[in-house]
Amino acid sequence: MFDLSGRVAFVTGGNGGIGLGLASGLAKAGAKIMVAARNPAKNAAAVAELRALGAEAEATHTDITDPASITAAIAATIARFGRLDILVNNAGTNIRNRPEAYDEADWHTVVDTNLTSAYLTAKAAHPHLKASGHGRVINNGSMLSIFGMPLHIAYAASKGGIVQFTKALATAWAADGITVNAILPGWIDTDLTRKARGDMPLLNDNVLARTPAKRWGSPQDFEGIAAFLASDAAAFITGTAIPVDGGYSVQG
Question: What is the pLDDT of residues 56-73, one digit of tens each?
């Protein structure tokens, strides 16, 4: 039920952090991986890591805010692997500032990267996911889809949007045999959150105090949820948003 042999996954932002954790989980379950990201050096390193797991893996330079770049990347995936079964909309960014001081250009950068790109990529992938007969879409949300924080206005808006986008897409594409689900990461040890810890000295202690698991998450914590949601075992699960946060979101 969890075997992904013969299936092909397209993972945006799959060259590091949570994205590489998701890609690794799919690879370990037998999927072929196309990493879609902008940094050539990180792309090459991610492909090498995925191949070391025994997976067929490639990377394509992709600007996920550019529809033409997305279309070309999907086409490159079909040309290389002949099909597309799994779409992981993972790429994201954050710019922190108070709402009254937030720059309009920064707003568009965050929303376009985190939310609009998921729509553009899903739209481009749809005919191939439908043709596969068991299409899967996994969208990367955030615990800020649930909570509010004062310095994350654009990030929270984009990630809240991801949850509603997931629900709407799930209802639209169910008849095409495509499931659409979101994951909501908690505090995960990545380059992005290491910078946040540097900017907010109390963050580490606060996270550990509130998280029942008493640790930060790691990208490896996303391998299982990726393989599960992409598998036949999750064929009747769609429109959900699943926290992966060590229990952070259940604490009062």
Answer: 999 999 999 999 999 999
Please say whether the beta carbons of 41 and 49 come within 8 A. Answer: no
Per the CB < 8 A criterion, the answer to whether 48 and 93 are in contact is: no
Q: In the prediction, which pLDDT does 186 show?
A: 94
Q: What is the DSSP letter of 16?
A: S
**Active-site residue set:** 155
* The two three-digit tokens of residue 89, written as one number: 């909309």
Query: Which domains are seen in the chain, by residue range?
Result: 8-247 (3.40.50.720)
Residue with tokens 């330079």: 61
Residues in Cβ contact with 136 at an 8 Å cutoff, skipping those fewer than 6 apart: 85, 86, 87, 129, 178, 179, 229, 230, 234
Residues in CB range of 221: below 8 A, 6 or more apart: 21, 188, 244
> What number is the average pLDDT over the span 239-248?
97
Averaged pLDDT for residues 114-134: 98
